[in-house]
Amino acid sequence: MQPELSRMVATCLSIAEKQVARTLDLLEGGATIPFISRYRKEATGGLDEVQIEDVKRLYEKLTETAKRKETILASIESQGKLTDELKKRINTIWNLTELEDVYLPYRPKRRTRAEIARQKGLEPLAAIIATQQETHIREAATRYINENVKSADEALAGASDILAEQFNENERCRNTVRQQFRQKAVITSKVVKGKEEEAVKFRDYFNFSEPLRRCSSHRLLALRRGETEGFLKVSISPDDEDCIHHLNRLYVKGNNECSRIIENTITDSYKRLIKPSIETEFATASKQKADDEAIRVFAQNLHQLLLSPPLGQKRVLGIDPGFRTGCKVVCLDAQGNLLHNEAIYPHPPRNEYPQAQRKLQKLVEQYDIQAIAIGNGTASRETESLVQSIRFDRSVEAFMVSEDGASIYSASKAARDEFPDYDVTVRGAVSIGRRLMDPLAELVKIDPKSIGVGQYQHDVDQTKLRDTLNRTVESCVNAVGVNLNTASCQLLTYVSGLGPQLAQNIVDYRMKNGPFTSRRDLLHVKRMGAKSFEQCAGFLRIPEGDNPLDNTAVHPERYDLLKQMARDAGTTVEELIRNKELRKSIPLERYITEECGLPTLTDIMTELDKPGRDPRNKIKAFSFAPDVHTIDDLKEGMVLPGIISNITNFGCFVDIGVHEKGLVHISQLADRYVSDPNEIVSLHQQVKVRVLQVDKERMRIALTLKI
To answer: How many CB atoms neighbour CB 648 within 10 A?
Structure first.
């Protein structure tokens, strides 16, 4: 850890230096963010996961900048141009754009027009023009005619090229243009000629312009997608004449021939060098900003989706609906194991409705089914009607379950390894059933990009997206905790301190030796060292183990402390867990140490109040309007039940039981101004919406929450 960078992080994030230093020490020591935020509150001063991630990210960014400065200093020094003043200036800069501006005049150049002019000996002539004092510049230019320079005009042109490059490399010049871009740049798009029909999905952007600073992330990503696919031409530009005027005011100092050359040179430099460079800079920066916003929204949606209410360990019948190929039906036990599978054909073209009713009725009875999960894809509403038409011998609730990503999982290696003797349709139905039981445990098996809660996920920075989504999954998994004896390898992978190899080793150990009876047994797992055990143990649960604390979020490193508390109270740990009044009587202050302060002690007591509790909400049954199945059934003014299926910056999408999702624009979320849709709605929230408009040509449905 570099103390100077640590201090800068503390200043930038308004966090105490001591907190930052200790957090960085823990990170460099191999601790994970979930572990630090949960079990090292005394060291960090109670920083949460977001703050710890901010510390990590900013420190890494400053470290990369420091490395870049070393490279730049070495490059300038090798040219023999590194002065003490320049070195001091570079060492004080931590903004990458400013750093690159300072380095630009010293950056090794290709064979530019200016470099060719210098090789012809025209640099002194450029210096004369720059003073704007020579009244007979053309006559002065004739002194530079030689075998490489054929005329005074050629000499002046070469000198102008040198000056144009100097203007481009001048910090003040570039910052002047940047300021104009920042305040007045407009992003413009036009359809590529001849591609109007192919580009119909980008119709809104055929002749589009908007101030760049007002262009929302989703619009900018749509524009860039259209550009990438070859349908749109996109540009970013301020008012060119205004920019040139500002530059002329800075550098044109007279009214002679040299001054006019400077004017022409500034125009050339701006159009040929400065503007393209700054436009690229702003295009990159605006794309990064749009990426960050899209990734933030995606991660927020994913977090809500992964923490969706679970049904719990119930016996479930899962149905993957279909028409021609039928509905694949699976029966699962309370642990999600496949007991039975077959196909039914209640819908066209076979229309075996009575047979399907009898079959489902029999399966519910035979396998003691407690709930039914129906995939929300093709034929889902028809299958829901089928299930609702059956009189079962018990109360069986039916739930619509998102199919997003189920087909990807069913064809994955994980699915093939688990069900080598079954085809993708069976695996998909199993996934649907398990999603109802525990969305988190099942969805971690699927690439987060394929879960169906993002927008433009294929257009953003893929490395940044993957890292952010993986952190989101890790955060959710560790917030809920994982049953050590039932968790899949994929789920264990996201537990703090594990990863793919250790997760697989745990599964292998479990298969060979049977269920874990103690967290300490983890130390017998291949490649499980003390550090990995420290990081993962608190997030792994053993519901019926030897030690009741193994089914809590209390870390094993605090077991001895709880035993001491129990001894001091004249009781046992088991009784301490059962007896709330007994816990209240314990003077926590007596047990405070440097490593275990009041925050950790309070967490322990809170956990013992509800040992092993699941922080997720309880699932609620839901039904769509019975008379609405397709977009043709919709009429303006209808009020319908729906479920929030995706949230974006510009509103939210609602599943109202037809194939197309309806959009509630941000302006239709409430009777007041809304800056963030998450203030009003959450993923999978059950809502009532009114139909505003149905565009059957474009298959778009506009909805409102303002009923």
So the answer is: 21
Nearest to 297 by CA among 677, 703, 686: 677
CA distances from 104 to 81, 87, 98 (A): 13, 15, 10
- Please give the C-alpha separations between residue 397 and each of 129, 377, 415, 593, 609, in angstroms, as whole numbers: 86, 19, 27, 51, 31
Residue-wise pLDDT for 629-659, tens only, equals: 899 999 999 999 999 999 998 999 999 999 8
Token pair 């800079």: residue? 281
Dist CA 137 CA 156 (whole Å): 9
Q: Rounded to a whole number, what is the largest CA-CA distance in the chain?
A: 107
Is the CA virtual torsion 433, 439, 440, 445 positive or negative? positive
Q: What backbone phi and psi angles, to 5 degrees, belong to 400? A: -80, 130
Q: Hunting for tokens 């649907």 — which residue is that?
A: 432
The pair of structure tokens assigned to 367 is 């396998």
Which residues make beta-bridge pairs with 665? 651
Does this model's pTM top 0.90? My answer is no
Instruction: Pull the structure tokens for residue 372.
Output: 């039914």
Helix boundaries (H) for 537-660: 559-568, 573-578, 580-584, 598-609
Question: Which residue(s) pair with 342 in the sheet?
Answer: 329
Q: Please, are residues 703 and 668 in contact by the beta-carbon 8 Å criterion?
A: yes
Residue 47: half-sphere exposure toward Cβ, Cα within 13 Å: 29
519 contacts 556 by C-beta, under 8 angstroms: yes
Is residue 178 a contact partner of residue 278, using CB atoms and an 8 Å limit? yes
For residue range 344-402, what is the model confidence (pLDDT) as tens digits?
999 999 999 999 999 999 999 999 999 999 999 889 999 999 999 999 989 999 999 98
Q: What is the pLDDT of residues 100-127, one digit of tens each?
A: 999 999 998 888 999 999 999 999 999 9
Q: Kindly report the backbone phi and psi dihedral angles of residue 586, in degrees, each rounded to the nearest multiple of 5, phi listed first.
A: -80, 125
Task: Give the C-alpha separation, 208 to 320, whole Å.
Answer: 43
Question: Rounded distance, CA 460 to CA 321, Å?
Answer: 33
Residue among 686, 692, 687 at smallest CA distance from 704: 692
Find out whether the peptide bond into 346 is cis, omega within 30 degrees of 0: no
Average pLDDT over residues 519-533: 96
In a 3-state reduction of DSSP, which class is residue 641?
strand
Residues 6+ away with beta carbon under 8 Å from 531? 30, 497
Look at residue 447 and give its three-state secondary structure. coil
Return the amino acid letter for 559: Y
Indicate left, alpha or beta for 343 from its phi (over 0: left) and psi (-120 to 50: alpha).
Answer: beta
| Element housing 235 (H / E) | strand 232-237
Question: Contact at 8 Å (CB) between 331 and 339?
Answer: yes
For residue 24, which of 42, 39, 9 has the smallest C-alpha distance?
9
Residue 268 near residue 156, CB atoms below 8 Å: no
d(CA 668, CA 215): 20
- Calpha distance 638→693 (Å, rounded): 10
CB 527, CB 502: distance < 8 Å: yes
Phi-psi region of 132 (alpha: psi -120 to 50; beta: other; left: phi over 0): left
Give 610's pLDDT tier (boundaries 50, 70, 90): confident
Q: 345 near 356, Cβ under 8 Å?
A: yes
Whether 277 contacts 101, CB under 8 Å: no
Q: Are 654 and 645 in contact (CB under 8 A)?
A: yes
517 by Cβ neighbours in 10 Å (0-12 / 13-18 / 19+) ranks as middle
H or E segment to which residue 700 belongs? strand 700-704
Residue type (1 letter), 128: I
